Amino acid sequence: MSSDTDHLASVKADEHLLTLQNLLDAQRSDFLAAGSPSAALRRDRIDRLILLITENADEFSSALQADFGNRPHVVNLVSDVVGVLPDIKATRRHLDAWMRPQRIRSGPLIGLPTVVEKRPLGVVGIIGPWNFPISLVVQPTASAFAAGNRVMIKFSEITARTAELFAAKVPDYFDATELTVITGGADVGAAFSTLPFDHLFFTGSPEVGAKVAAAAAKNLVPVTLELGGKNPAVIAPGADVTSMAGRVMAARVANGGQICLCPDYVFVPRAKVDSFVTSALTHGHRAASQWGKAGLVGIVDAKNFDRVTSLIEDARARGATVRDTGTPFDRGDRRIPPTVVLGVTDDMRISREEVFGPVLSVLPYDSIEEVCAYVAARPAPLAAYWYGPTDPDFEKFCARTQSGGMSVNDFALHCVVMQAPFGGVGHSGWGAYHGKTGFDTFTHHRTVTRSKLPFSFAELITPPYSPVLARGLRAYIGWERRVAARRVARRRHGPPTPP
Fold first, then answer.
1. Is this structure's pTM higher than 0.90?
2. What residues act catalytically?
């Protein structure tokens, strides 16, 4: 029986792959026939993408509300429509300058005029997440369009209503050779990852990201991974704990805690832990009391609800103290109140796994050295947060820890500034986008050099070799050796003593 099941699964996977390959072939064929698109056509595609999300904003919001169970209209508009428009519009505005070939100074090698062309890659695959299912595919799509590419999007099956609606709307704005949207389950996503794209862009968990990268590697497809991790926050010794506790809890419960940038744990000076927890839960209670109106976002599905609550129960069973706002946990509504966990130890799952829910671990500390050692010993997070004055303790934290980005005294500021690169490092991601960085991610920078030299470079380095060349090479090596030796000696022994 198992062999029959395996065979059926294999046939189904092959069918998915054939269908997806045909869509990719159609896009690539049209791309190769048409060549690199003009700036005017790239702007037109970006304009149509803006129309797609703005003309259907209310319908998309309703679909998001249905997918999450409770996700206020204003949250949907801010996070999945309005939030990406500034970056998309700036990309459109600067497109001509970014496309312009770059002339390179060839230094001492005169007679070699060189330009770097900004060429589209071809067909870009984008795999989106479920927490912001529209914005986190639209934003990289705009960058890919700006760079002159065609795009295929795979939506998350977890927000299926939003995915199906978006897929139904796209043909009203784009030909399938420009933009194609794929829906379906994990089997479709797995097949999508194996396609020979010219670039693959993935947003999601590190665990799935590793599988996507492995699948893409078989075709040598370059990959950008926007992942997550255990993001730390630090309440500085000199911070106003009451004020900053509210900010940290607001960051933790944003979108129901379902953001890859949310702080997972916070270091608080030991003497101020009680004050922090009281203030944080007061803020959390205010947000939770607005459930069903304009308050907390629901957990996206029962599977994720059970996963988050199991992290809490595992910590409790292993000796942690769990405090919440008093609002009941509700699996039917997928409602988890803002929760604080104290006494977290390394044997608890919550100390290792990304929570992706409104649950905050609070860790006391006695010195910044202790904080730095803890963060540095773990995989690099996507974000780090510092709440308080930017004093020598802050500089020490910056110098001794690694993270994709950092924000001070508020949530996700480094992501909001669209002119700056956004991405992870190490376990939290590969590559970056936003602004010109996004354009560059989906662009091939092709160097083109012409020769105006009176001799051939190739002939110079093929037999018979000139004795003059050999003497010249030895003289040059000796000169570089003497210069480097003098620099090293000066640093080692200091300046010469005056007579």
1. yes
2. 226, 260
